[in-house]
Amino acid sequence: MLIGEVARRSGVSARMLRHYDSLGLARPTGRTDAGYREYSSEDIRRIFHIESLRSLGLSLSEVRRALDDPGFKPSDLVDDLVRQTRERIASETELLTRLRRIGAAEPAAWEDVLQIVALLHALESKSAGKRQRAALSSVPVPVEALVEAALSETDPNVAGALRWALAQSGEDGLALLAEGLGSPVAQVRKRAVQSIAEISTGEATALLRDVLASPDLVVRRCAALALGTRGVADAVPTLIDMIVEETNDVDAADALSALASDPALEDRIATGLVDRLARGTLDSPARRRLAQALADIPGTTASDALADLSRDDDRAVALTATYILKLRNAR
Q1: Close Cβ partners of 250 (under 8 Å, ≥ 6 residues apart)
Q2: Taking the CB of residue 178, how many other CB atoms lie within 10 A of it?
Q3: What value, to the nearest 5°, has the Cα angle with vertex 178 and ends 141 and 136?
Q4: pLDDT at 108
Q5: R_g over Cα of the chain
Q6: In a domain? residue 154
Q7: What is the pLDDT of residues 218-244, one digit of tens each?
Q8: Where is the signal peptide, in residue numbers (predicted)?
Q9: CATH number of 57's domain
Q10: Which residues, in sequence order, are CB contacts of 280 under 8 Å at separation 6+?
């Protein structure tokens, strides 16, 4: 079969067939009566083998080795191709993500594009200072990039700057932060709820309410502290638990005090504290912390509970309650 017919039937251009011939990769081995070189069935089979291997991403030198080296191990080459393909996909995915983020920022000019690219590079810098400056930049950083950085940041100062930047963007990053709440990595879940807590919108508050049902204790407590300052009564049980367990107990007591500024909630909070005190399983320090939390809860329910505690069998608890009562009466 002559080169033109081979090209027509195989789909390989005559130019490429001549290139294979010049490289000695696939040469026509026959001759016609007129002296023209002719491809045999075996030659054509080799051409199809070459094209098959090229479709896997092999270079022509790798194809030659695969076809001509009797000691060649296909598994080694396939493993290498898998590695190269993964690296290429990762690189292309990174590029696609960067382009999408630049596009989301809607740059008006190439100068805007260059500024955004510089900020994205800065967010990925090994320097905490550069990452922090990027977060605080006057040039808006794409929200998706901010969320990704906030969920992975380990430096507390940079993390604070990133949360601030996210709060300035309003609710734009909430959907991505909500995905972070479902991460299998505990630290990512914690960073996600901390970032949501900085966003003072109704949607953020609703999301924090949902977090109160999370099995992750750290995430649940962080949400409760934020909700307490927003006047959400659903946070009360978790805040009381935090006082009992001496986990951010001062902050939890402050949050309960803020909630109790609403007259409709003061009895509910006082009753919750009293109910926990009534359980006989608490140790003395826990009962003393609960008594201290009652100090900033207005109303007769809290006062009556403190009066009862002033006669408590535990001297430390009784003295704490007595002192608090004196302060309340002096007001």
Answers
A1: none
A2: 17
A3: 25
A4: 66
A5: 35
A6: no
A7: 999 999 999 999 999 999 999 999 999
A8: none
A9: 1.10.1660.10
A10: none
